[in-house]
Design brief:
Elements lengths: L6 H15 L10 H26 L5 H8 L3 H13 L3 E7 L2 E6 L1
Antiparallel strand pairs: 1-2
Helix pairs in contact: 1-2, 2-3, 2-4, 3-4
Length: 105
């Protein structure tokens, strides 16, 4: 439920008809396939962020633990953790065995 109610996805859904029928702020009309490809990408990103958040919330704070729990690549987990940190959903807690550890807020 959290994924589909995320702000980026809600914004895209609300703008789809306008952008595909009338065009964006520059008057460029987008074809539906291109718009849906972008929406799929945003949906996947939000889903991955929520998977990571759920893993952190259950006590898996290191990037490697989160990667193992979610099945996402280490680089993807690290990148999305930075995004979750910027939006104050997770926080850096410190280093354990030379590895960064995060907690859910």
């Amino acid at each position: 439920m959290t994924t589909v109610s995320s702000e980026p996805l809600r914004w895209l859904v609300s703008k789809e008809l306008k952008i595909t029928a009338s065009g964006d702020v520059y008057g460029r009309r987008w074809d539906t396939d291109t718009f849906e490809t972008i929406m799929d990408s945003v949906l996947e990103r939000e889903y991955h962020k929520n998977l990571i958040y759920a893993a952190v919330k259950t006590g898996n704070g290191s990037v490697r633990e989160i990667s193992q729990i979610t099945g996402l690549a280490l680089q993807r987990v690290s990148y999305l953790l930075a995004d979750l940190e910027k939006t104050s959903r997770v926080a850096f807690q410190g280093m354990e065995d030379s590895k960064p550890v995060f907690s859910a807020l």
